[in-house]
């Protein structure tokens, strides 16, 4: 069973961990932390460097994601 994330909708814990793990595997840790922190704080960020699945797993609203993708 999933739990509610800070975004709209439900994301299974395993899926969220898998997506974040994939991000960290493909990119360096500093970039991942910068992107996740910017998203959390509502700051402009380059979401183009993230896959759509990771953006969804992070709970970023579609309308916000589309402004940066």
Ordered list of secondary-structure elements with their pairings:
Layout: E1 3-4, E2 10-11, H1 13-26, H2 29-41, H3 52-57, H4 62-68
Molecular structure report:
58% of the residues lie in helices and 6% in strands. By secondary structure, the chain is mostly helical. It has one domain (12-68). The protein starts with a strand and ends with a helix. Residues 1-10 have low confidence and may be disordered.
Task: Provide the descriptors you would attach to this structure in a database record.
69 residues; mainly alpha; 4 helices
Helix content: 55-70%
- The proportion of strand residues reads 5-15%
Protein structure class: mainly alpha
Question: How is the quaternary structure best described?
Answer: single chain
Largest sheet: 2 strands, antiparallel
Number of strands: 2
Tally of separate domains: 1
Order of helices and strands: EEHHHH
N-to-C CA distance: 30 Å
| Contiguous helical run count | 4
Would you summarize the structure shown here?
The chain is 58% helix and 6% strand. By secondary structure, it is mainly alpha-helical.
